[in-house]
Design a protein that fits this description.
By secondary structure, the chain is mainly beta. Helices cover 9% and strands 38% of the residues. It is globular. It is found in: Cell membrane.
């Protein structure tokens, strides 16, 4: 009886300490928005009374900042379909739950720039996109959340955010004009604060649907059947960096070990050599359409593009698969980008040559629920259409439009020859709508390796 009593009490204690996953007050739904740089966005509610902001979700940076008492920021924009959108601008003085963060706070990293311990803590976040930054002061306020379950209840989290008084670069001409929601590993990020305050477990997930609709859940630890690989943590500026060991293009596997950051704040994938040359040249050798060579496309960031005929409704391209450290496979569902040019449509391998850091961008995450488990320090992934949990969320912009289906084909498997492949769990072909990009698009290299810099 004593043993049974201990078990019952243990179960009660576990239930009492069990944390429920949470998400944003307006719902867990996210959208990839063409009009705003092809990043995933969500509505977040901050302050008292609550104001709603349309923020880009960025696993490549740490600070959550909003345009605030601006001297340089975007007040609103007109979309491609002539819809006028006005953005909320955060003002600490109008929120009854807001307070300035003093320089002697442990989260203030710019104390050397302070005139006194009690003065307002300054911040500046610099991004690798040319001339892109946010500058201001740190404040504390309430982030309005809700439990991510059938019986929802309101949750208020006291968080630290940036009052972004001056924005530059991409924030003024297309991407993330209404704020960036940093999801990184630093103590100042919202996932870190939610875990520290025991509001949610120290893990979160993002789902990236093929139709541009996604999900975000704080406290999601993933599932036992997901693929996993460990994070490679650095002492300074830790990121969601993992190791890859193989690249498979069209059924041909090559051993190549390199590190890459899983960054939702980068629209497409950036690779250094030798990984870039290996994946792009292997793709080019197996592509069936003619390679695009027009000088009019000099502004395209992609080097390997292929012409589509005027009446072409579908096309085939080689599959791209990755092997992560530990041996689990990561099958790339959406490696290509379809772009409309004046001369006609082309499709491109959605990989850009990098000269500094390897990044697995949002396009390679399409079709997966990605779990950023900061307790186990692993990255998890499992295929998902992102509709397993339905919620309501209204965003002022439309998600991505669709292009006629493309078919991903493994040429070796089609020919009945699987020699040398390592993708026995992959289907031989995949059919799905690809994103239809516009002729002119924004500088989308957002938030690659952000860091706090001296003001």
């Amino acid at each position: 009886m004593v043993h049974r009593d201990k078990i019952i009490k243990g179960r009660r204690l576990a239930t009492a300490n069990d944390q429920t996953p949470v998400t944003f007050l307006d719902g867990n739904e996210t959208y990839r928005l063409d009009d705003l740089g092809f990043l995933h966005y969500a509505n977040v509610s901050v302050g008292t009374p609550a104001l709603s902001f349309l923020v880009a979700l960025d696993t490549g940076s740490d600070l959550f900042w909003l345009p605030c008492d601006c001297t340089r920021c975007v007040q609103g924009l007109r979309t491609s379909d002539n819809q006028m959108i006005e953005f909320s601008i955060y003002t600490p003085n109008t929120s009854s739950t807001s307070s300035k963060v003093p320089c002697n706070n442990s989260l203030c990293e710019q104390q050397r720039q302070c005139s006194s311990p009690q003065s307002d803590c300054p911040y500046q976040v610099l991004y690798l996109s040319n001339g892109t930054s946010s500058t201001g002061v740190l404040v504390e306020d309430v982030l309005h959340l809700t439990t991510d379950e059938d019986k929802t209840r309101a949750v208020q989290a006291n968080i630290t955010l940036g009052c972004g008084q001056v924005q530059t670069g991409s924030f003024l001409n297309g991407a993330a004009p209404n704020g960036v929601f940093g999801l990184g590993l630093d103590n100042i990020s919202v996932p870190s604060i939610l875990a520290k305050e025991n509001i949610a477990p120290n893990s979160f997930s993002m789902c990236f649907g093929r139709d541009g609709v996604g999900r975000i859940t704080f406290g999601d630890r993933g599932s036992s059947d997901q693929g996993e690989t460990p994070f490679n943590l650095r002492l300074q500026h830790p990121t969601y960096n993992v190791s890859l060991t193989q690249i498979n293009v069209g059924g041909n596997t090559a051993d190549l070990e390199f590190n890459a950051i899983f960054d939702s704040g980068t629209s497409f994938t950036y690779l250094n050599d030798p990984a870039y040359t290996l994946i792009s040249e292997s793709f080019n050798n197996l592509a069936t359409e003619n390679r695009h060579t027009s000088s009019n496309s000099s502004d395209l960031p992609f080097e390997y593009c292929y012409d589509l005929s005027a009446n072409q409704s579908s096309f085939k391209y080689p599959v791209v698969n990755l092997t992560m450290k530990g041996g689990d496979y990561f099958f790339v569902n959406d490696p290509i980008v379809v772009i409309s040019l004046q001369a006609g449509d082309v499709y491109c391998l959605g990989v850009v040559k990098s000269d500094n850091v390897d990044i697995i961008g949002q396009n390679f995450m399409t079709g997966y629920r990605i779990v950023f488990d900061r307790e186990k320090m692993v990255l998890g992934w499992i295929p998902s259409d992102c509709y397993d949990k339905e919620t309501s969320n209204t965003l002022p912009l439309k998600p991505s439009t669709a292009f006629p289906p493309a078919v991903a084909v493994n040429p070796e498997a089609t020919a009945g020859n699987n020699n040398g492949t390592n993708n026995s769990r992959a289907p031989p072909s995949i059919t799905y709508p690809s994103t239809h990009l516009k002729t002119l698009f924004y500088t989308f290299t957002l938030a690659l390796i952000p860091f706090f810099a001296l003001i």
